[in-house]
Fold this sequence. Notes:
Helix content is about 55%, strand content about 0%. It has a domain at about 50-105. The protein contains three helices and no strands. Helix 2 runs antiparallel to helix 3 (about 80-100). By secondary structure, the chain is an all-alpha fold. The longest helix is centred in the middle third of the chain and has 25 residues, at about 55-80.
Amino acid sequence: MRALILVFALGLALAISAQAVPLGPPSTPAGNVLTVQGWPNWQWGSQGGPGWGQEHKRREHCWRLRHQEHEIRERISYAPPWERGGMEHHLWEVREQLRGECRGMWRDGD
């Protein structure tokens, strides 16, 4: 019985070592690997994707302000009376910022 367990353990150790990764440095890619050309003027980070200019940034900023306005308005309806004053002042500030920075932007029929 011990011999059978020893043979099984030895076989298991050999199977695991056969699947091990080589210890040397990783191999370099083959010479037939191609680099794919991307979109012209493709920029990431704060620039966004291809063609994301100032107009897109402005629309996104205005959308965020509108979303913030809606969220504050919804929270005011469920807030206790002693918290509504500060929230209404914050809503007024967001609306003023929206009016000043997003004048002329489309509105979604509110």
